Amino acid sequence: MIFHNVKNMNINLTLQDHGINTTSLDVLIEYAETSIYYLMVSGHEAVATWHQLRQLISETAHWPVILGNSLDVSSLLAYAIVPEREVLQAVLQLSAVIDPAEWFAQQEGLSAYPDSDWFDQVVIYERQQLKAHNQLLGYGEDENDPLREIDLYPSSTSYYFRTRFDREPGRVRIGLIPTMESWQVPAFLGYSVGGPKLNPALHTSILRRWKTQYGAEVVTIADRLLQLYATRPPQSLSAAVPLAWEHGVYCPGLIDEEPLLYRTAAVLREPLWSFGWD
Questions:
Q1: C-alpha distance from residue 271 to each of 34, 69, 266 (Å)
Q2: Confidence label for 153 from pLDDT (cuts 50, 70 and 90)
Q3: Residue with the larger pLDDT of the pair 81 and 251
Q4: Which of 206, 231, 205 minimizes the C-alpha distance to 216?
Q5: 3-state secondary structure at position 206
Q6: Which helix (H) or strand (E) holds 64?
Q7: What average pLDDT does the segment 155-176 reach?
Q8: Any alpha helices (H) in 215-252, and if so which ranges?
Q9: d(Cα 97, Cα 85) in Å, to the nearest integer?
Q10: Contact, 60 vs 44, CB < 8 A?
Q11: Residue 148: alpha-carbon gap to chain centroid
Q12: pTM to 2 decimals?
């Protein structure tokens, strides 16, 4: 359900002071003491508006999130477990005691988080498989090795990226979540997409881990799509392989699409991480 009635005039005035059109500003989800707001913009303006709102975090105390079109928002709210304030605090407290590394290991049937030797062996195995495939097709041994030539994406706060909403013909909603920590966004939205293994507390805990390690910030939560931007992406193979592995455990659909070698190359080249669940 989408509520109408903007209560927080401070955020309205702050946005106006910075030249942001607040005609469409409205309440998305209403809590007892606070609310989640949204703005509507054209699809081609969504990323630019997100940039602008991201720079105003210290003034608005609301994290911007691209929520998609009206259908995306309706689907998101249908799947969301919107918490009351007491439940929200419980979700955040639970996320603080969850150990994502332990969870990743458990999902793969491992007794502990893999060490560097384990990841090295996985890379060696996948490269051997690739070489065998190349030989079968008459290619060179290193042909199509995604890790052969890697141009590292530098750590950055410039946020150069595109989303699927850039060409959205209709209006796109950008949520304003009452937190300055983007990893808390799944808790505020009650984000439970990803099947029974993922719940708001687990999403929150994993995103906090990636924020701490790679400066990953929430950009998009639209129905079954989650996008993060890494301001400090991995700069070495030894860091990228475990991260790519974690991505696959978090979103198994990625494993079906690409082997670990290709996912590793992707996180080294691309700071925008996209996750989708059926």
A1: 32, 24, 8
A2: low
A3: 251
A4: 231
A5: helix
A6: strand 63-68
A7: 76
A8: 237-250
A9: 19
A10: no
A11: 27
A12: 0.89
Residue 147's pLDDT is: 73
Distances (CA, A) of 46 to 29, 171, 211: 20, 9, 23
DSSP state of 155: P
Closest CA to 124 of 227, 273, 241, 30: 241
* pLDDT tens-place string over residues 199-234: 999 999 999 999 999 999 999 998 789 999 999 999
- Closest-CA residue to 145 (of 271, 262, 263): 262
Q: What are 42's strand-pairing partners? A: 171
Which tokens belong to 135?
Answer: 């030989």
Yes or no: say if 231 and 271 are a contact pair by the CB < 8 Å rule.
Answer: yes
Of 67, 59, 71, which Cα lies nearest the Cα of 37? 67
Distance CA 24, CA 67 (A): 14
* CA–CA separation, 199 and 222 (whole Å): 16
Return d(Cα 133, Cα 222) in angstroms, integer: 38
- The identity of residue 132, as a single letter, is A
CA distance 252 to 3: 35
Indicate the Cα dihedral angle 61, 1, 250, 273, nearest 10°.
Answer: -60
* pLDDT tens per residue across span 58-115: 999 999 999 999 988 988 887 776 656 678 889 999 999 999 999 999 999 999 999 9
Token pair listed for 207: 């995103």
Nearest to 80 by CA among 89, 69, 93, 67: 67
Beta-carbon contacts of residue 183 (< 8 Å; ≥ 6 apart): 204, 207, 208, 210, 211, 218
